[in-house]
């Protein structure tokens, strides 16, 4: 996990407590260690971050936007976890379709859309 200071990592526990205190109990949380490509600046070990995530019952993944490493996987994992939570809620409600919340379908694009953005170099200076 790339963090400029270890104290930032130490604040994550407090931030999670605040987040969980103001949200639904079934919120999906992922701890993301970004800038994994900057290994020489690492302030928190992968093992420490993984252990913390397990203790807090969250997902953990290291990413690098620069190297396009695990960024899409992180989003996919969060969406998969959200799907599981919503599916479980639907099963708990039972067969009453009136009890299910009505939502709106949102088109998040296709892989071709993502590839077009990558080719355009949205993050390059």
Structural features, described:
The protein is mainly alpha-helical and 125 residues long. Helices cover 47% and strands 6% of the residues. The chain is built from four helices and two strands, in the order αβαβαα. The protein has helices at 6-21, 46-55, 71-93, 111-120; strands at residues 30-33, 59-62. It has a two-stranded parallel sheet with strand order 1-2. Helix 2 (46-55) links the parallel strand 1 and strand 2 (59-62). The longest helix has 23 residues, at 71-93. The radius of gyration is 18 Å and the shape is globular. The two termini are 24 Å apart. Mean pLDDT is 80; it is low at 120-125.
| Class by SSE composition | mainly alpha
The proportion of residues in beta strands is 5-15%
Rg from Cα: 18 Å
**CA-CA gap between termini:** 24 Å
Q: How many separate helices? A: 4
Name the helicity range.
40-55%
Indicate the overall shape. globular
Strand order of the largest sheet: 1-2
Low-confidence stretches: 120-125
Query: Mean of residue pLDDT?
Result: 80
Main β-sheet: number of strands, strand sense, barrel status?
Answer: 2 strands, parallel
What would you call the quaternary organization? single chain
Order of helices and strands: HEHEHH
Number of strands: 2
Task: Give a concise summary.
This protein is mostly helical. The protein has helices at 6-21, 46-55, 71-93, 111-120, and strands at 30-33, 59-62.
């Amino acid at each position: 996990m790339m963090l400029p200071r270890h104290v930032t990592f130490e604040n994550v526990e407090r931030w999670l407590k605040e987040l969980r205190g103001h949200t639904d109990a079934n919120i999906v949380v992922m701890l993301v260690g970004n800038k994994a490509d900057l290994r020489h600046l690492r302030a928190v070990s992968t093992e420490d971050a993984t252990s913390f995530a397990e203790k807090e019952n969250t997902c953990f993944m290291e990413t690098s936007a620069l190297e396009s490493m695990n960024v899409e996987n992180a989003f996919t994992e969060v969406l998969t976890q959200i799907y599981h939570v919503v599916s479980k809620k639907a099963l708990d409600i039972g067969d009453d379709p009136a009890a299910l919340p009505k939502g709106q379908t949102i088109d998040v694009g296709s892989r071709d859309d993502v590839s077009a953005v990558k080719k355009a170099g949205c993050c390059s200076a």
